[in-house]
Amino acid sequence: RLPYSSARRPARRRLLVAPRHVAPPYIGMQQLDPRDLAGGPVRNLARVRRIPQHLAVKLKSPGFVCMALGGTIICLLLMQPVWNSILMLHNPVLLHFLGKNPPAIIITACVCLVVLYLLSVFLFFRYNKKASQSEQNVLLIANVFTMMLGALVLIISMPIRRTGMSLQSEILEKCQHGVQTHGLYMTYVRSLALRRTSGCASKESVDMCQGFSETPNTDLLKDMEFKYKCSGWGTPPTLEAHQPVAGSISFLQLDEQQAGLQDRPSSAAARAWSFKKLPQLNSGGAAQAPTQGPVYVYPPTLFSLRNFQATCDGMAARDCSYFLTDTADGLYYEGLYLMIISIGIGFLKLLSFCMKDNIFTRNKKGRPGHPEYGGTDRRYVSQGVLG
């Protein structure tokens, strides 16, 4: 008699088999107490069915993963235009000349694109058939939104560049009578006349003087003065003194100076030191003399006594032009790269159709997929399933 006969062999405990209608992905069936295994499958099923439905936590489906991953990538790609739009809203100079509509339109378009992507993925996985939820269709959605994102940033970059060029031209060339600069120039002229009065010239700021009226244009002039360290708007500096920057003297004048030094009764060391101090000849035959260039007088600052030596119109034109041009260039290249990526995805899809055996047609040849959780079918390595 064998030591482990059928009579003495311990009874095998049946493990819990989950019903098909309570198939995963649900957590709660996997967190059972060890005492549930002693009561048999009937008792276990009864205990499982008594679990409240609101306590069952559904695992992440492919639709949720696509929504989270794709939404994160789109938000990262849209970070540059949204961030530049926020900077425009916080820049008083750009806000005065451009207004709030262009940055608000950019932010709204970016938010609508993200919402449209999330809604499309949700509807695709919620109301579409399981058979059509393949990798090829998911790749098609990614390709469509990549192309839409590239087209969006390309369309945004073009008017931004044109606006920067036209704004720079108007500020530098039509600062006094431009459509957007004339009101600011008239406000500056009135404030400058008040600043040059005897009772206001010694004060710290023109807003302390009697007769000053605060307007949005005066606030903009004050912001530009402290931000750019400048003074004046549409009033070029006046020329106070003018001398040649690089004056030249002739050979006759140089010989007369040398002869005058030689006639002086001085020592040889003194004469040698004096000759070194004379202007030296350059390659063109003329001697360069240290002379003073033109001296310009800038208008006084309105809101301080610092009297900065730079014009506010020139500083504002350069700042607006550089910021808008850099923003347009960044958006243009980003949109160009996204369009190239979408074209590459399209060629990859076309190449996948030309392959004899690919991941899109593999399930159509009769190869079984992963069995459902709780199923009784055996899984074999020959069927493409490990474990």
TrEMBL record:
Indicate the transmembrane segments per the record: 64-83, 103-125, 137-160, 336-355
UniProt keyword list: Membrane, Transmembrane, Transmembrane helix
Its name, as the record gives it, is: Uncharacterized protein
Q: Which organism is it from?
A: Alexandrium catenella (Red tide dinoflagellate)
